Amino acid sequence: MKVLFVAAEASPYIKKGGLGDVIGSLPNELRKLGVDARVILPKYLDIPEEYTKQMIFKKSINVALGWRNQYCGIYKIKNKPFYFIDNEYYFKRNDVYGFEDDAERFVFFSKAVLEAIPYLGFTPDLIHCHDWHTAPLILFLKEHYHSISNTLSVFTIHNLKYQGIFNKNILPDLLSLNEDIYNYPELEFFGQVNFMKCGIKMADLVTTVSRTYSEEIKTPFFGEQLDGVCKDRGDQLYGIINGIDYEVYNPKIDKYIVARYGKDTIKNKPINKRHLQELLGLPVNDVPMIAMVSRLVSQKGFDLVAHVLDKILRMEIQMVVLGTGEKCYEQLFINYANKYPDKLSANITFDRQLAHKIYAASDIFLMPSLFEPCGLGQMIALRYGTVPVVRKTGGLKDTIQAYDEISGVGNGFVFENYNAHEMFNTLQKAVEIYQLKDKWLHLMQNAISSDCSWSKSAKKYLELYRNLITGDPKQ
Fold this sequence. Notes:
Layout (H helix, E strand, L loop, with lengths): L1 E5 L11 H15 L3 E7 L6 H4 L2 E11 L2 E10 L4 E5 L1 H4 L10 H15 L9 E5 L4 H9 L8 E6 L7 E2 L3 H5 L13 E2 L2 E3 H8 L2 E4 L2 H6 L3 H4 L3 H7 L3 E3 L29 H12 L8 E5 L8 H12 L4 E5 L4 H13 L4 E4 L4 H10 L2 E4 L9 H7 L3 E5 L2 H6 L13 E3 L4 H15 L2 H13 L5 H15 L6
Parallel strand pairs: 1-2, 1-6, 2-5, 6-7, 7-11, 11-12, 13-14, 13-16, 14-15, 16-17, 17-18
Antiparallel strand pairs: 3-4, 4-5, 8-10, 9-10
Helix pairs in contact: 1-19, 4-5, 5-7, 11-14, 12-17
């Protein structure tokens, strides 16, 4: 089976969020199952030189885009199944997203992928597109590329909040379609063009990144005005939980931490806490360390944290925050770190090495999201024996089982309502259990024993692919 993954980012080449982790890991896991899975990305300026040096130029072609005739270079990483679409006008910029011409940039990328396929030495049975940036590919595939009309399409929603909504003038300008938006119900969204809607409606099969989220997005609260569209896909919308790369996140071999450990040697974990305390200038003592490694945005529940942060920091705890995002939250943590310098370390940056150190050092991982399609932070925390405290939503619900003090079953703490005091009470309960060393050791072992690898999920994707190709899709 030949599958081409099309996405805007993939680790380790270019990564802005969880999408990059998924595209960096899932194809590799599918290859272990015998799938010829390859990936194609834009050739961004921000791709590190260590990778661009490995790129081999394969072909240059021209891509018609409305009235434009654009250069497209096709590159491949030597001895690896990763391809890159080059166009310096669109991609030689100091970032990946957030430009005024993003519609044009990703429409070009989508069409260039289809134009490049004859030169890859690889004709996919199935093209797996990810998020709105690649949805135009599905439109082009269905409407214009009849030579590969047997190629099927899968579209994955990573976060429905980000939809790619643009002015309708791109219809004739970029998509070579009639300017009347209402002729295209698969694109039309309150008089504008919505690429996410296009992907959901036109793909042969749609997935999202957890079973719970696949049901949540069929409701108005989570559906971001596309709940009806999601509901219409019915049995063709599947929820498959993401995994994490067990070679990247592995406390037994992690090169960024000072004391390596596993389930049977988890008592070495506190050595990493002492190292981090010294590194960040926190008092070296045995109080529970609460970690948040996240984008500092409202989706992640930071308004709840802001409401009770003073109460949290009056407990006998330490707190370490790593991330960037909305200025109000960045400033919140800076201010409180100045107020409680012995209790809070605010690291307003992105630092991969420090993230690994925090996961290995901390005792509790706080993730109180308003909504969470999948979430990777809680799975990484489990891998490092760090106990998550989460809200019961999306992938958090699917991966964290509430700890039962009597039976000893569970791998974390869960609260249900989006309420700051409920979050605080749950966090307080975790801090209390921390003092019961035998129970806490057992809970850490439950966490580190949780299976958050890609193994099960990759098999589910393979089953979906097979059923789609054979014409027998089933739940």
